[in-house]
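hey m, so remember when u said the tokens were messed up on ur end? i reran from scratch. heres the input so u can diff it against urs
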Amino acid sequence: MSEKMKDSLPWKFVNYLAIIWLIIAGAPFLFQILSSFKTQGEFITSSLLDLPKKLYFENYISVLKGGFIRYLFNSLFVLSISLVLLLFFSACAAYPLSRMKFRLNQFILGAIVAAMSIPIHITLIPVFTMSIRLNMYDKVYALIGPSVAFNLPMSIFILTTFMRGISEEMEEAAEMDGYGKFSSFFKIILPLSISGLVPLAIYNGVMIWNDFLFAMLLLQAQKVRTLPLAIWEFQGQYSINIPIIMALLVLSSLPLIILYIIGQDKMIKGIMAGAIKG
């Protein structure tokens, strides 16, 4: 980027907006961190953004002793398996819709887009009934099916649009070398779709990680609960002790922050690639 463009008034205005947005978005998280290191009495008597007089780690110890590791493992289990299945099924469905011409192509894609408009609340009773009949109720893997199914339509639609922007010449050259459709998909299209899969994984990962509705519906035993249910449980148990709740929120958000830090480059490249192709 040229120095002239960096010194331009619109660019400076964008930078100022970014700084303002950083302050707005970062203030609540800063409040969480500062509050998590305070005692209950200090939290009540001090200002919201005051630094703690002394780092009080007892809040984090109480959270860890309260079963946080078990809740974290359950959430990671659901997240990892759901994301792998979701991205794989989305890519497998998006490939023929984007690269193959057949009569029902647009109809199937339209039906997938229409499925995005189905309200999640009207499916609660069918999902609950199905989980009982399949003997999956109150088991942590009962969340995998809904997590994949309700995020699948949008993921297929986005990946279909992304794969249409991949040059067909590479696939045609591979077919001349003897590659079939399966080989072309796994060795050419799928690797080139990484920049589209990573932002999709981060977006869906946040949705799956924060899911409370299906977790509340399908999980009852304490040993199979995920982090959103843990926050709800801790809120009822420590409703007056806000610093402990803040410590739990900080620990719950750390995995997503780490995931974003790892995949931020791919996410930005994917967004830019989608914008250029769009």
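this time it looks ok to me. The chain is about 75% helix and 0% strand. if urs says something different then somethings off w ur setup not the seq
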